[in-house]
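Render AMMECR1 domain-containing protein in 3D.
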Amino acid sequence: MWRWAIFVPHPPIIIPEVGRGEEAAAAKTIEGMKEIAKRLKDELPDSLIILTPHHAMGRGLHVICANQFKGDMGVFRARNCRLEVDGDPELASSLAEYMESKGLPVSRSKGRLVELDHASFVPLYYLNKTWGTLPKVVIANPLGLDYEESYALGKFLRQFDANDKNLGIIFSGDLSHRLIPSAPAGYHPRAKDFDAAVVRAFETSNAEELLSLPEDEIERAGECGLRSALAFLGMAEGEPISVLSYEGPFGVGYCTAIWMPTKAAKGGSSGVESHPYVRLARLSVEHYLKTKQVLDPSQAFSLSPQVDLWSKRRGCFVSIKRLDGSLRGCIGTISPVRENLASEIIYNALAAAFEDPRFMPLSEEELTGVRFSVDVLSDLELVASVDELDPKVYGVVVEKGLRKGVLLPDLEGVDTVEYQLEIAAQKAGISSLKGAKIYRFTVERYEEVEKDL
C-alpha cells in the first residue's frame, strides 16, 4: 500500500556539510525538506522507491536491481557525509515486470553494490536524519520515457501491488536551470514560466498544462525534473498535493511537495481511511457529542500533530454527507477567522454538525452513517470575466452590497458557470448579478473514503 509520495529537488548545497553556510540562500527549500521529514516522521515505509534523473539510464524506465546502495558527497567537498542503504532487488524486479505488463518500455541493470547518485542521496539524507534509519530502496531512472509515458508511469505506480508492503516514493527533480544570468545552464527570460507551470500543476493536481507544453518551452527551461513531476501527478490521480516551497536562489528552480492518499487502496481492510484534517473534523464532533465541550487545542495537537495545522491560517469548509451522498450539513469560512487551520476545522466541524439551519443537530447514533470532508480554501481572486471561471476547478463568491454567497467547486450537478453563479447568488438572496463582484478560489479537498474489503 502506498503511504506517501514526495517531489523534491536535489541540490547538494542544501546539505550543511556541503553548503558550509551557503545553504542559507536556499532557506525555503531546506524548510520544505524539513517539513516533509516531520510529516513523515511516523511514516517509515517497508521499502522506498526513488525516481531520479541522474542514475544509470537505459531504454524507457531503467530499474536498478541492487543488493545495496552506497554513496558520499566527496565530489562536493564532503567525503565524510556518507549513506549506506540496503536495496530491494525483489521489489525492483516486480516493479519492472509490472511496468512491462502495462506496455511501458523498461530496461534493467543489476549489481551487488551500486553507487548512490546525488539526486537520490539528498532526499535520503533528510529522511535519515528524521528516521535514524532507512528502509530498503529501489532506484529507477525515467529519462528514457517520453512525457506521456512518464505520466502513465505515475498512474501505473498507483495501481502497483507490492504484496502488502507499505511503500513510499521519492520523485527527485530540479526545475528550470536557467532562471538568472549566472545560472549553470545559461539564462532564458521565460524559463521562469516553466517553473510556474509546474507549481500550478501541483497546486491543482492536474497535469494537463504540463502535457501540452511546447517542446521549445521545455528546452528553454533546461530542466531535469519534468518526467518526475509528471509521474508524481499521475500517481496523485487528481487528489490534493501540498506544495510546501518553491524558490530559485542559484538560478535553478527547487520545489518541495507531498501527496498522501485519500482514496482507499486495493486490498485494504474494511473501515474508513482519512486524511488528518478529516480525522480532526470527525474527532471534534465525536468529542462534543460525548462531553458537550469543544475539543481542546492541546488534545487536538496530540491527535493531529501535523505542523501545517498549527502554522498556517486558511479558510475552510466542513461537509457532512450521508452514505447515499446526500448532504447532512455544511458550514465554513471563506477567509480564516481563527488563530490556525486546526481551530478553523474544529469550529467549522461543530457548526456543520450542530448549527446548519437546514438540518437538525447531528446525533451520536448518526455518526457511523455519515462521512466528513474538509475543503481548505485558497485566497480569493477577483475575476474580470466569467471566462475565468470553471465550476470543476474553481469555487465562487458572489458579493453585492452586504450580501455574499459562496459555492464550492466540483459539485455534482453543477456543470456550467451560469448555474454555479445562479446558485451562489440565490444562497445570498442576490436577485441580479448586475453590479456584483465575483471572486474565484480553489480548494484542497480531503474526504473520508471507504476501504475496499
